[in-house]
Amino acid sequence: MTQTTPNHTQTVAGWAAHDSSGKITPFIFKRRENGENDVTIKILYCGMCHTDLHYIRNDWGITMYPVVPGHEITGVITEVGEKVKGFKMGDRVGVGCLAASCLECELCTDSQENYCSNLQFTYNGIFWDGSITYGGYSQILVADHRYVVHVPDNLPMDAAAPLLCAGITVFSPMKEHNLLQSPGKKLGVVGLGGLGHVAVKFGKAFGLHVTVISTSPSKETEAKLRLGADAFLVSTDPIQMQSGARTLDFIINTVAGKHSLGPILELLKVKGTMVLVGAPDKPLDLPSFPLIFGKRVVKGSIIGGMKDTQEMMDLCGKHNITCDVEVIKPDYIDQALSRLDKNDVRYRFVIDIAGKLSSNL
Ligand code: NAP
Ligand code: ZN
Fold this sequence. Notes:
Elements: E1 10-16, E2 25-31, E3 38-47, H1 50-56, E4 73-80, E5 92-95, E6 98-100, H2 106-109, E7 120-121, E8 140-144, E9 148-150, H3 157-160, H4 166-176, E10 186-190, H5 194-205, E11 209-214, H6 220-225, E12 231-234, H7 238-243, E13 248-253, H8 262-265, E14 268-276, H9 289-294, E15 297-300, H10 306-319, E16 325-328, H11 333-341, E17 348-352
Parallel strand pairs: 10-11, 10-13, 11-12, 13-14, 14-15, 16-17
Antiparallel strand pairs: 1-2, 3-4, 3-8, 3-17, 4-5, 5-9, 6-7
Helix pairs in contact: 4-5
This protein binds NADP nicotinamide-adenine-dinucleotide phosphate and zinc ion.
The site of zinc ion has 4 residues, from loops.
């Protein structure tokens, strides 16, 4: 079913899930004409976030099919609306999870659009004109320029794409807790996947001591040698976990599946904080003892505001931080999703959208 919203006249080729089977197939749909506040972007690359998998399989029960996933988008501007400020044709840009917000509330005016109660996402959202948003697994995107950022010239567009979601999601809580200016502080990163590996890179760029907490012993060597992690704990090994008790100031938990928070909380010092960014579909076990005996805090965080997103992109440009990616062609999306589900990616699949397209498009 394609949309019939007026002004949705641009025919776009993309890839969509039509049901919860997990399969993605080519999909032709309509996007709006470029409005006065919009830029049109020729999509070059799109990262594959675990959130895409959650939506594709309807893990959270909120998917509106057909869903065109993708919110780690890099590309080049091909059209600019009259009221657009700060962007021109040919600019290298990125779009993350945000497609719209009210732009007027206290949160929007304080650059925290990501917490606006009228927030709409890049896909599976409902745009201002009532249309369902379609994401970056597609050739062209029309985006309101207030949710677009510049990609620094020195960053490759494929390895920069995951910064638009994975990057900002871990950067935002680190910034909020002053970890950018606290060298020597001890950061724990739970789950070494798309989000986790960027958190390790940020931690090292900001001079933190970084401990990875992982279910995969096979990731230890690369975590230390390639990503620069200082320590590695296997979360299923109680002796290793006990050896790390009360050592960490701050933990970012990126785990996508159900797991127990108790042993991880024990790794925090007294008054330490764990920020949950992972979004398992089932409630997590939160025992009270590690909280009350350690005065510890557990909180959540979702992506980041647009100002922080641009700041993060600029910092990545300055420190040359990119993601470790496996670039794939669109006809490999299904296999990539199944490998992502099996924790078999180092550390992000990125779709080469503008490269050779699948033969049936
Ligand atoms: P990912 O690449 O699949 O990485 C998740 C990692 O968590 C895995 O590599 C694995 O690391 C660990 N893990 C997965 N399932 C586990 C389980 N059942 N028990 C213990 N560990 C497990 O996923 P991602 O793209 O980084 O996304 C992670 C989560 O964050 C997803 O739920 C996603 O929806 C969510 N997310 C949230 C936001 C936000 O704004 N809050 C933004 C983006 C994504 P090890 O092998 O090291 O154990
Ligand atoms: Zn994401």
